[in-house]
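Sanity check

After download, print the first record. It should look like this:
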Amino acid sequence: MFFEILKAILMGVVEGITEWLPISSTGHMILVEQLIKFNASEEFMSMFRVVIQLGAILAVVVLFWNKLWPFGLRHGRVTSKPEVWQLWFKVVAATLPVLVISPLDDWFEARFYNYITVAAMLILYGILFIVVENRRTAPHVARLEQITYKEAFLIGVWQMLAIIPGTSRSGATIVGGLLLGLSRACVAEFTFYLAIPVMAGASLLKVVKFALSGVAITGTEIAVLVVGCAVAFVVSLAAIRFLMDYVKRHNFKFFGLYRIVLGLVVLAVAAISAIA
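Expected structure tokens:
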């Protein structure tokens, strides 16, 4: 059990970093899973890869609680915050496209969760980041309240593309937001909020599917899941703070270059595995 917990810690660290930085958590998970193998059923691992995101979501809620909670106290009375409700309505607008394509999630995972697809998406979006930044003009949306419902919906359309493994949910939404004229800090923060309903819904669906599969969960697997989520939460706190500070002074070209290099590494690992 001790070694399983160590593996869960490593997976939590990888999830906490890669979920928020636009570098593809799937690409990193593929590499990590080449190094470590859990003593668990495939049904549990399929659920674990998604549910571990709950720790990452909790980090967003904790860090941005004042911006996300739509109620407050004034003179001892509960008041509503219209600007927060407007933000949530825009998050819903951006989530609608994902609801349309989400039934195909298992189909895409079964057919495209492989080295070639992941590497191709890593490299493609890496190039996109560099091209978008090179052609970027002054943003016309610098604050969340300036985002229109149309822009929120279009960012949601970009988020749909993350169903292809290796794309990166944050990577797709950030590229889409930049193309729509959002500032780097604005699109990064909006991307964090979009993750809450999308990742929570995906986690709930995976838990239900696991429960219906009839596969029993062991005590070790429960411990692995809890530790993975807890580590992902702690690491996500640092990763989110880092990204919000980073985009105030830098562009996304570094992440583009990183994705291209990682894509080439994934291809190299695939070639070595094929030879072996």
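If your output differs, re-run the checksum step. Summary of this record's structure: The first helix runs from residue 2 to 18.
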